[in-house]
Structure formats: C-alpha cells, structure tokens
Amino acid sequence: MAEQNTQLRARRWPQPDGWTIGAGVIALIVLAPIVSVVWIAFHPTENIWPHLLATVMPRYMMATLTLMAGVGVLTALVGTGAAWLVTIYRFPGSGWLSYALLFPLAVPAYVGAYALVDFFDYSGALQVNLRSLMGWASSQDYWFPKVRTPEAAILVLSAALYPYVYLLARQAFREQSGGSYEVARALGSGAWGVFLRVGLPLARPSVAAGVALALMETVADYGTVAHFGVQTLTTGIFTTWLTAGNAGGAAQIAGVSLSLIVLLLTVERLGRRRARFHASARQMRPVVAQTLSGWRGWLAFTLCFLPFAMGFLLPVAVMASHALKKPEAWIEPGLGKALMNTLTVGGCAAVLTVAAAIFFVYGLRMAGRGLPRWILPVTALGYAAPGAVLALGLLVPLAALDHRVADGILALTGHDPGLMLTGTSTAIVLAFIVRFFGIAQGAVDAAFGRISPNLPLAARALGRPAGGVLREVYLPLMRGSVGMALLIVFVDCVKELPATLLLRPFNFNTLATRTQELASLEKLGEAAPAALLVMAVGLVAVALMARMEARR
Q: Which of 111, 344, 411, 476 has the most Cβ atoms closer than 10 angstroms to its Cβ?
C-alpha cells in the first residue's frame, strides 16, 4: 500500500529537471514586475492614497471607464459589422477591403491622434481650406467641433483598435456553416434577422475576445490620451511618479489599473466559458457570399471604407505630407540613431521573448498535463498589464539592485561601473520581454499543440534527449509559427511607448519616443519620418498576416 502511494505521488508530482526549473525561473521573471507593483502599493514610503482618493482618483477612474465604454461599443460595432459584410456579401471593393481593414493595426493610436489633430484643428488643412473657400476670417464666423476632446480620443482609439475585433469576428463568421444561414432565410429571416439570430450569437465569444483586447490596449494607452488632454489612470501614473516624485502613489494608481485589467480578463474568460458552440460532426457547407448591387453595394463599401480611411489613410496621408514638405528631416542624425536603437532593442527583445516562450512551454509540457493548464494564463498577464505598470514594477527594484551592484564593485575594485541595468537599454528589453511574453507564449503553445505527440515519442524511443527532440522534431515543424511570433513581438516592441518613455536612459530615443517627443512640441515635420517608419514596420507584419490568412 505504501509503495502504491509513493508511486501515485511520483506520477502526480514529477521530479523537476532542468526544463521544469528553467520554466519556473522564466515564470518568476515574467510575474516579478506585477508582484513588485503590488508590494510597492501596499508598502509606500509616503502613503498618499487618501489624498489621491479625495482629489484626482475619481477623475482618473471616470475618464478611463468612459474611454473603455466608448471604445468597447465602437470597436464591437465597427469590427463585427465590417467582418460580417466582407464575409457574407460581395460588393464593390469587398475583396481588397477584407485585407485593407487590417491595415490600421500597423498605425499606433498616438500617431492617429497626431494626424487627427493636425488635420481637423483650427490651423489644420481642413479648416484652413474651409476659411479660404467660404471667405471666413476667423473662428467667430463659423462653428466647428472641438478636436481635443475625450470623444475624439475615443474615435482615434477605436479606429486603431477595431481590427482586433474584425480579425477574430471574420474568422468566426468564416467557420460557421452556410447551411444555418440558408435555414434562417427559409424560415423568413431577413438580412438583419440572419445576423442577429444566427451569425452574431455564434460569433459572440470571438467578438468578446476582440473587444477585451481593445479595452486592454485602451487602459494601457498613454500617447493618445496625453495628446488629447484626457486624464486617465495611465496619465496619473506618469504624473504621480515623474512630476510628484511619489513611486508609492503611482504604484497605487497602477494597482487600480491592474485590477481593472484582471476584472476584464475574468469577465471575458467567464463569458467564453459559458458561451460554447460546436460545429456539426458532418462536413459543414461553406458560406456562400451574396452579391449586393446598386445603392446597397455602395453603402456596404462606404461603411467598410470609412474605418479603413480613418484608421490608416488619414494618418499615413498627414505624416507623408509633412515628410514631403520637410525632406531634410530624413537625414537628421537623431532619426538614424532612433532607428538603430529601435532595431537593436526590438530585435533583442523579440528573440529573447520567443526563445523564452519556447523553453517555457516545452518545459511545462515536459512536466505533465496539469501544470500548463493553470500556469499559462497567469504568465500571460504581462501582456494585459499596461506598459506604465510594468515600467514602475521594473524600475524601482532594478534601480535598487543596480546601486547595490555598483557599490559592491566599487568597494572591491575601486572602479565605479555606473548603472548597468537602468542606465542602459537593458531595462527596456526586460520590460518588452515581460510585456509581450504572453503573445509569444500563445503562438508557441498553439504550435506545439498542432504537432502529433507520436512524433516526439518516436524520437525519444530512438534515444533522443529532450533537447534533441525540441531541436530536431518540434522546431522544424514550428518554423512558420515561430517566425510569425518573432515578427509580431518585434512590431509591438517598435510601437510600445509608455514603458519606453519611463525606462529609457538619458538621451536614448526609439522611433516611438522620437515621434511622441517631437509631436508633443508640435513639430510634426520632424516627427513624420519616425512615424512613417513605425507604420512601415507594422505594415509588413500585417501584410504577412494577411498572406497567411489567404493561404488557409
């Protein structure tokens, strides 16, 4: 009996090896900044929480919730509606619009904010031409809506983030059976009835997941809301930490932001768990697109073209026009240096993140089936956490460690090495690894899941060690997924702004921080080349994603 219990415990708790221990270390590194934020929030040097609660916290909270509500509604309507139109109908331009609607993913929201303000503001191209055309002398002669408002921030964020909903909803609509639509039409349902009673309920989990991603990006945003003067939780972190110099108060605001994200993730996961839809075991009939002609076809084209124009064409056109007006900005040394910094930091972070994700997921799979089920969602929390939160959780402990190491080396050798972590780009790379580990982990875990377990078992039976199985069996079969994960993480690193702003050493710029720095000074001519380079990198990733979608 005792021997049986020992055997059961051995099966339940496998002996840890190098892979399992390494996976545990990676998990600790990914979760450490979040734990650090919670610790700083509960142990501040000066507790200003009562003051925050009585003064600015209600304003921060209300602004954040208002943005979330507006962005959530708009992204759901635009993303789901566009996905339904390009999947179920054929109309003028529907073929290229089905891919063009993904292009706003290449445009950071803060670039869209700069473009919107520059185009629609009093001194922008639209109002200048209107005054010239109509003979108006000043703003007293006509009415024009204000540009720097929370509503404009919602519009810009929605234009940049609706592709999250569009991509997932389009895939859900494509996977549905065309027979269910035909039955609904035979029973008398019109176009709206088919969408509301069949298409939307079946796609609801995918739509909810896309909206959740958009809301997480909304909470994490800094460049857009700062440009529009909207005081959210993220701007509160910057103000309390950098202006007031109170890391504890900033951590407490960050804790509220993190709580919102955790609540959002919980609601989204519960919603998906309760909403389960299964396809029939029989061969599904593919969806046959119906043709829309006349004014209905052009209406569908307009509805799909507007979000593409707002999210992609407008930012690209505004930035390109400024870049053409000031071509000397392309040869400024600051731009070349920012480009090299971006490629170096983003490239290192992407390689390290994907490598860590491969090691982590493989290590968990080596440990058994039960462990990955609960530890994978926890380590993905870093992607949900705003960059400002991770920066705060990293900088405070890293700065303390940096000073201790420097003091120790100085005492032993008499040489002061300086700040080796926070004084270099190391902290930025570490923040990127934590921030985007969830993306790489998800892609790698899905790639592992698509490989038949018989292949690694056969390799082990032939005497290959665990490392050999990973190198000779898994990695060759996962090459495409690993490459896509590298590309997506690299693009996100290029676009990331809050963490880079807070963690960069003195006189260190990336393309994102150079764009924000110059645009905040109303120097769009100098900022345009950096913004265009950021969008170009993102557009390459979107094009490759569209190509992979077309091959399915």
A: 111
pLDDT of residue 314: 94
Domain annotation for the chain: domains and CATH numbers: 34-325 (1.10.3720.10), 327-552 (1.10.3720.10)
**How far is Cα 535 from Cα 343, in angstroms, rounded to an integer?**
14
In 504-523, where does DSSP find H-type helix? 511-520
Cα separation, 255 vs 261, in Å, equals 10
Half-sphere exposure at residue 102, Cβ-oriented, CA atoms within 13 angstroms: 23
How far CA 302 is from CA of 132, 154, 169, 317, 469, in Å, comes to 28, 21, 19, 19, 52
- SS3 at position 543: helix
Contacts of 362 (CB under 8 A, 6+ apart): 19, 23, 448, 466, 470, 474
Q: Are 258 and 37 in contact (CB under 8 A)?
A: yes
What residues have CB less than 8 Å from 123, skipping those under 6 apart? none
State which amino acid sits at residue 392. L
The DSSP 8-state label assigned to residue 106 in this structure reads G
pLDDT at site 27 = 85
CB 206 within 8 A of CB 119: no
Q: Does the structure show a pLDDT above 90 at 262?
A: no
CA separation, residue 184 to residues 181, 190, 196, 215, 442 (Å): 5, 8, 11, 33, 36
- Rounded to an integer, what distance in angstroms lies between the CA atom of residue 261 and that of residue 435? 14
pLDDT of residue 104: 92
Name the more confident of 186 and 217: 217
Q: pLDDT by residue (tens digit) across 336-364? A: 999 999 999 999 999 999 999 999 888 88
Q: What is the pLDDT of residues 72-85, one digit of tens each?
A: 999 999 999 999 89
User: Do residues 229 and 113 make contact, with C-beta atoms less than 8 angstroms apart?
Assistant: no
pLDDT-based confidence at 548, cuts 50/70/90? Answer: low
Q: Would you state the pLDDT for residue 29? A: 86
In the three-class reduction of DSSP (H, G, I as helix; E, B as strand; rest coil), residue 63 is classed as helix
pLDDT, mean of residues 277-281: 47
Q: Find out whether 482 and 475 touch, Cβ atoms under 8 Å.
A: yes
Residue 103 parent element (H or E): none
Could you tell me which residue, 377 or 38, shows the higher pLDDT?
38
Which residues lie across from 290 on neighbouring strands?
89
